């Protein structure tokens, strides 16, 4: 069957509320949107928030899109506007005089991509619409020149000329900023770096948010972004890093009992927001619950099913069969699962297989990544509360090991404290010990770190601190690097590492061989200049 183009999928979504069509649009373009957002906000967590917001806008405005408008170009423009609005809002709230000083002192990395990355999307959106669309299709959507020409309604030769002209205009803009890069080098950099793979769990989250937005046609509910608001406690640190903030901050923040109470209240507010998100998800899954009830009723009284009930039963049986396949796979391959998955409900498992087929390798991988991520998010919420309770009970003393937190877990909206076991905590390492008052702001954002996961190339990584918890990736070494730099500075007062390899002994937890190679390869962008 011929693959539908973007506007055919949009028509299916607008006219028939086809969630499958919307999910296909997300799958096609989520990497484009996430990459553009990531370049501008320089934070995976904020990039996820922007990506969700952009696709919610697509869900709300799909009926307004004209067939002649390339969807990639529209999404890129909306991403740019959304990131600008977000950064302005956060900077107004977070910026201090120290940030301004650090921005003024910021040095630009020598590598061409690092020089153009942060301003690339602004430069792209300043081009004429045809040139902007041509570059998006060629380098961000990876279209051939023939496909670019077809999308723009011109010949292949005309598409080649338009791409070349747009590259030259882009090169000229960077030249005026003092950044020397050739058009050929710019094309190579765009081909190599323009698109990043979005986190595996982001697509399903967006589809759920889009479904809510498409049905409501109203203001975006605050709870739609409740999960991403968990990141607000660390946005300031992320923005500071994006602006080239100093990694050797020497100020020590003294936190007393009043501050601990404030942090606990803040965490309780975040947990309330997560519970609101859970209610939204429950509403979106009402069909699933009703189907389960019909199935139970049919089994109880043996009544003949109507045509609708028969279809519902068949659908439910198919989902239950997928869950069974997935659980059998985990039983045969226990290294693919994590203990936190025991905190998931049956509805979580059903959601994981609703739009994937665990009988296929790709569908099984998508479902497993989503389940691991959800398990870690729920466990992370509980562990952040347990850490605060431990610190308060021990007069500001941080735990020596993660297992020390086991008695401090309490029941919450997602799991019982009795479900938490030592094997869950053993996957997390305490990287900062001693008194909470003696650790830096960076260390308070990540005092406990997840040490490993079955798929470190794609899985999300949990960081826990008294400020709450957030999720990053195993590919990012920023937090670990800052810990290592702080440890180096304490051991070698007044000195800076002359060679990145000098930092390797200071990483806690230690880096794997692959992570060491990645760190040494990217050290020029991770270390202060």
- Poorly predicted runs of 5 or more residues: 96-111, 215-259
Overall shape: globular
**Order of secondary-structure elements:** HHHHHHHHHHHHHHHHHHEHEEEHHH
Question: What is the quaternary state of this protein?
Answer: single chain
Distance between the termini: 54 Å
Radius of gyration based on Cα positions = 25 Å
Determine the strand fraction and express it as a percent band.
Answer: under 5%
- How would a textbook summarize the main sheet? 4 strands, antiparallel
Count of DSSP E strands? 4
Structural class from helices and strands?
mainly alpha
The helix content is 55-70%
Question: What's the domain count?
Answer: 2
Q: On the 0-100 scale, what is the average pLDDT? A: 74
Q: How are the SSEs placed, and which strands pair?
A:
Blueprint (H helix, E strand, L loop, with lengths): L5 H11 L2 H23 L2 H18 L9 H24 L2 H9 L6 H14 L3 H12 L4 H8 L3 H21 L6 H11 L8 H15 L18 H8 L14 H28 L1 H16 L5 H26 L13 H8 L7 H33 L28 H4 L2 E3 L10 H5 L2 E3 L9 E6 L2 E6 L4 H14 L21 H9 L1 H4 L3
Antiparallel strand pairs: 1-2, 2-3, 3-4
Helix pairs in contact: 1-2, 2-3, 2-4, 2-6, 2-11, 3-4, 3-11, 7-8, 7-9, 8-9, 9-10, 13-17, 14-15, 15-16, 16-17
